[in-house]
Design goal:
The complex is a heterodimer of chains A (136) and B (407). Chain A is α+β, with helices and mostly antiparallel strands and 136 residues long. Chain A has helices at residues 5-12, 65-78, 83-86, 91-98, 105-125, 132-135, and strands at 27-34, 39-47, 54-62. Chain B has helices spanning 18-24, 41-61, 75-89, 105-116, 134-140, 163-173, 247-285, 312-319, 340-344, 349-353, 366-385, 388-394, and strands spanning 6-7, 69-72, 96-100, 120-124, 145-151, 176-180, 199-203, 214-218, 289-291, 302-307, 323-324, 326-327, 355-359. In chain B, the strands form three sheets. A seven-stranded mixed sheet of chain B has the order 2-8-7-6-5-3-4, with helices on both faces. Classes of the chains: A alpha+beta (136), B alpha/beta (407).
């Protein structure tokens, strides 16, 4: 199976690899997947507490090239979005952008799960649904 | 000068040796006869060529009589013929088959089919080093056991079983022994007489011969083994495998076997040295890299390593512009399951996903080994930098303590 150019590009030049300290205010962390399934994604967002905009995003992924590309792309898309906007990113958007074949769709699902988990973690930490991001 | 891509996946297939091609060519054009044409020179010429190949293959497996070698379309067919052939022929005697947990798919799938047809199959587990305990086989035997089927050497981890001991057990119990020797023949000494093997499967394309031809050794004496054919027709191959023999392929198979026989000691030694170099290079520079399989009892051209915290397909992706290897990762298998072979060693599923197989061959050079070794180290290190598992492990978190949400 050949990989799409975009998958190869994200694999070779992954965007936003790294970590934020979990307890930093405004940081939301999602850790999804399982080692025995062959993929684990950690995706983090850093939200500006005044504006509710995601200022930065980082990821680390254990998984195949498509999983790495899906999470790398997700971090790119998250930056500059509000928390509400970020919640609208769908796995199918990732599939289309990266031209993932059917056997790799689960990679995009995992990336969507990671986004949701990071957002949920951020919301939980920032107290309630009244966090600036949600009220915007 | 390095030439890319570098092929280091020689347990999936091998390039045909140019000497083998040379031997085959006349049998496509001027010597095109049908070996079963008994009444003219075209047929005799083809028959002679097939007989010579039968002889060459008999020699490399230590068969007493070349007539014991039956040509098939490859390893898969040989295994099907051996196991199903015995199952059908000896059904009256019993319905139990003993095999191991790390057989190749052809063997396991045949066994699964037979189970659906009322046979009982025991899949004997292996030790963490991939060896099957002869006593574990002994304990699995019942008075209904008609066949023991064990792979001589494993396709993923290269572990070589103690076939002589298994053969001795089979003889003692009067049970037929089939050896899947597709990965062993031509690479290490194989002898059906000293190992007490009654049926042996092998294939040409793993020994620098053409794809599309294999052989099944069927013992004729002590005991005389009988198998029911899978394919009926003109009664070729002593009735066990009908169908016009692919003479050019058979000629190539024979020549390939002959070359392997001549080169084995030298080639095995050279490849083992290169393999050891590759292993030392990687294991000395990468922490938490684990050798899969038995450290000594293994094929000279095989190396299988699990790199904790990185997924196998992603490692291959980092290498595949320049080199061809394979992985036990689910993402590289047709079943979307991680390697059951690595799993059978008792390793975690994560390590099965993380396994990489390097398999060297006749044309592998030292430069290629150095290159692939260095690149592998780079890629694994790079991927670990982006692995959340590596990060957690370095923070001292026990990965097993995390409640993972599997999708």
């Amino acid at each position: 199976m050949a990989y799409s150019d975009k998958v190869v590009d994200h694999y070779n030049n992954p965007r936003n690899v790294g970590s934020f300290a979990k307890d930093t205010p405004g940081v939301g962390t999602g850790l999804v997947g399982a080692p025995e399934c062959g993929d684990v994604m950690k995706l983090q967002i850093k939200v500006n507490l005044d504006t509710g905009v995601i200022e930065d995003a980082k990821f680390k992924t254990f998984g195949c090239g498509s999983a790495i590309a899906s999470s790398s792309l997700a971090t790119e898309w998250l930056k500059g979005k509000t928390v509400d906007e970020a919640a609208k990113i769908k796995n199918t958007d990732i599939v289309n952008e990266l031209k993932l074949p059917p056997v790799k769709i689960h990679c995009s699902v995992l990336a969507e799960d990671a986004i949701k988990a990071a957002l949920a973690d951020y919301r939980e930490k920032s107290g309630s649904a009244d966090a600036p991001a949600s009220s915007k | 000068m390095l030439k890319f891509p570098i092929f280091m996946d020689a347990q999936s297939t091998t390039p045909v040796d140019p000497r083998v091609v040379d031997a085959m060519i006349p049998y496509f054009t001027e010597k095109f006869g049908h070996p079963a044409s008994r009444n003219h020179s075209f047929g005799w010429e083809a028959e002679n060529a097939v007989d010579r190949a039968r002889d060459q293959i008999a020699k490399i497996i230590g068969a007493r009589d070349p007539k014991e070698v039956i040509f098939t379309s490859g390893g898969t067919e040989s295994i099907n013929l051996a196991v199903k052939g015995v199952a059908e022929m000896y059904r009256e005697k019993g319905n139990h088959i003993v095999t191991t947990a790390i057989e190749q798919r052809a063997s396991l799938d045949v066994c699964k089919r037979l189970e659906r047809q009322g046979f009982e199959v025991t899949y004997v587990p292996v030790r963490p080093d991939g060896l099957v305990e002869v006593d574990a086989i002994r304990q699995a035997l019942t008075d209904k056991t008609i066949l023991i089927s064990v792979m001589f050497a494993n396709n993923e981890i290269g572990t070589i079983q103690d076939m002589a001991a298994i053969g001795k057990l089979a003889k003692e119990k009067g049970i037929i022994l089939h050896a899947d020797a597709t990965q062993a023949v031509g690479k290490i000494p194989v002898n059906v007489e000293t190992a007490g093997i009654d049926l042996l499967s092998c294939t040409a394309h793993l020994i620098y011969g053409p794809k599309g031809v294999g052989a099944l050794y069927v013992r004729r004496k002590a005991p005389r083994v009988r198998i029911a054919p899978l394919i009926d027709g003109g009664g070729h191959e002593r009735g066990m495998r009908s169908g016009t023999l692919p003479v050019p392929l058979i000629v190539g198979f024979g020549r390939a076997a002959e070359i392997c026989g001549e080169a084995m000691a030298e080639e095995g030694g050279r490849l083992a040295k290169l393999r050891d170099r590759l292993q030392d290079m990687i294991l000395s520079k990468v922490d938490e890299a684990y050798l899969n399989g038995h450290p000594e009892r293994r094929l000279p051209h095989n190396l299988n390593i699990s790199f904790a915290y990185v997924e196998g397909e992603s490692v291959l992706m980092g290498l595949n512009k320049e080199s061809a290897l394979s992985s036990g990762s689910a993402c590289t298998s047709s079943t979307l399951e991680p390697s059951y072979v690595i799993g059978a060693l008792g390793a975690s599923a994560e390590l099965a996903h993380s396994s990489i197989r390097f398999s060297l061959h006749r044309f592998t050079t030292e430069e290629e080994v150095e290159h692939v070794g260095a690149r592998t180290i780079d890629v694994v290190k790079r991927l670990r930098e982006m692995s959340p598992l590596y990060e957690l492990a370095k923070e001292g978190v026990d990965l097993k303590s995390i409640r993972w949400k599997a999708d």
